[in-house]
Amino acid sequence: MSTRVAVLVFPGTNCELDVVVALEALGGTPELVFHTARDLRGADAVVVPGGFAHGDYLRTGALARFSPVMAAVADHAAAGGPVVGICNGFQILTEAGLLPGALQKNAGLKFLCRTVACRVETRRSVLTGHAEPGAVLQLPINHFEGAYRCDEATLAELRADDRVVLRYVENPNGSLDGIAGVANEGGNVVGLMPHPERASDALLGSTDGVVLLESLLDVRARV
Amino acid sequence: MRYEARIEVTHLPGVLDPQGATVERALPALGYEHVRDVRIGKCIRLELDAPDRSAARAAVESMCERLLVNPVIEAYEIELTELAPVS
User: Considering the domain B2-82 in this protein, what is its CATH number?
Assistant: First the structure.
């Protein structure tokens, strides 16, 4: 049975259709779910796509976490359901407390829009179940606030528990420890700054994101 | 009573402040050679009604903890002023 994925739409989200097209091409059944929804309509997995939810006002992701749909996302995550936040979606998940840490302005104060090499650090997440640890993926980044930050105790915990999912091969934005993506304790909630949906077709210049999206669609790989 | 709250939000000590660092590098180019430790944050100003000063402060602290500040990377200070009653 095809995996049903709720793709969330906040005012200002702008990557939802890229995610829908990429998931459909891989055999998934994505459905757009507006931020005012109070349930996920029985979806197996959730993607919080990129963009500028609520205009990024106050802080990126700060207002989106109060949207009604986020309570349903929190319940889904608590029940072990897969949730993936991409770029602005990652920022929203940290603000919502579903992932540790925060995303800060890039070191160098430049908006970065280019393809970067990212190393898969673990298979123990819903996004990397099919990936080889150590594999290097060419993935586009497109952000101003992408420098990952957390306190030392949290960083030690992330490392010890194998929760750093992706690292930049060459740190483009000043992220702590080169972190490009992290997971929660269960590995079912993942946030990453790179955009796998923009590396899902040869026409886009890379298909390295496919292995990540396929991992997500294979809910049996759930950890 | 009506109060004005000014909330100064800054980076936690030790958290990289790329805007502050950039401005710190720019000021010497204008001849300000002796500038140190530039930090850039934001100021949030609001008015609120509360029975007394401590209730007003408690309300603003709650707003900071729940929305206005991200404690992972930011610190804050609240300055509270009682506003003159409207006659």
Answer: 3.30.1280.10
Judging contacts by C-beta atoms under 8 Å, the chain A residues touching residue B73 are 102, 104, 149
Q: What is the rounded CA–CA span in Å between residue A38 and residue A75?
A: 11
Residue A107 contacts B, CB cutoff 8 Å:
yes
Predicted local confidence at residue B85, as pLDDT: 76
Residues of A in contact with B43 (CB under 8 A): none
The model's pLDDT over A98-120, given as tens digits with 9 standing for 90+, comes to: 999 999 999 888 999 999 999 99
Answer with the residue of higher pLDDT: A219 or B78: B78
Record: contact A109-B68, CB cut-off 8 A: no
Pairing of strands B2-11, B42-49: antiparallel
Structural domain boundaries in chain B? 2-82
Q: What ranges make up the beta strands (E) of chain A?
A: 4-9, 29-34, 45-48, 83-86, 102-104, 112-120, 136-143, 147-149, 164-168, 179-183, 189-192
Residue B87's SS3 state is: coil
Contacts of A107 in chain B (CB under 8 A): 16, 18
Q: Is A176 on the interface with B (CB under 8 A)?
A: no
Q: Is there a contact between B72 and A58 if contact means CB atoms under 8 Å apart? A: no
Mean residue pLDDT across chain B: 93
Give residue-wise pLDDT tens across range A177-192. Answer: 999 999 999 999 999 9
Residue B66 contacts A where some CB pair is shorter than 8 Å:
no
CATH 3.40.50.880 fits A4-221, yes or no: yes
Other beta carbons within 10 Å of B71: 11
What is each CA distance from A47 to A82, A84, A191, B77, in whole angstroms?
A: 9, 5, 10, 36
What's the ipTM? 0.79
